[in-house]
Amino acid sequence: MQIVYNSEQFYVIAYPAEEGYEIIDKAAGRGAFFRGDVALRFRDSMRDIVAHDPSPDTVDEFISGFDIALTQPAVYH
User: Fold this and answer.
1) How many Å from the N-terminal Cα to the C-terminal Cα in the chain?
2) Max alpha carbon distance in the chain (Å)?
3) pLDDT, tens digit, for every residue of 25-67?
4) Which of 9, 13, 63, 70 is within CB 3.0–4.6 Å of 22 for a Cys-Cys bond?
5) Residue 6 — φ and ψ, nearest 5°?
6) Cβ atoms of residues 8 and 1 within 8 Å
7) What gap in Å lies between CA 10 and CA 24, rounded to an integer?
8) Can you give the pTM of this predicted structure?
9) Alpha helices in the chain (DSSP H)
10) Side-chain half-sphere exposure of 55, counting CA atoms within 13 A
11) What's CA 34's distance to the chain center, in Å?
């Protein structure tokens, strides 16, 4: 597990062994886990965004596009 992005709004966590990514919306308290092709497209898109405009506002805007998929309650330990 590796935190690859952390803003006031979102966490993005990579799980290399599972080839997946988890997105957590901190304010909403919900998230999603992506694997396979979706995870690969997400990773590639994140790399493109960061390469062109790595500002937190731009990255948060991109991640907020996944809002409809963030349906699992986030439980903090």
Assistant:
1) 15
2) 35
3) 999 999 999 999 999 999 999 999 999 998 999 999 999 999 8
4) 13
5) -150, 110
6) no
7) 6
8) 0.87
9) 36-52, 56-64
10) 4
11) 9
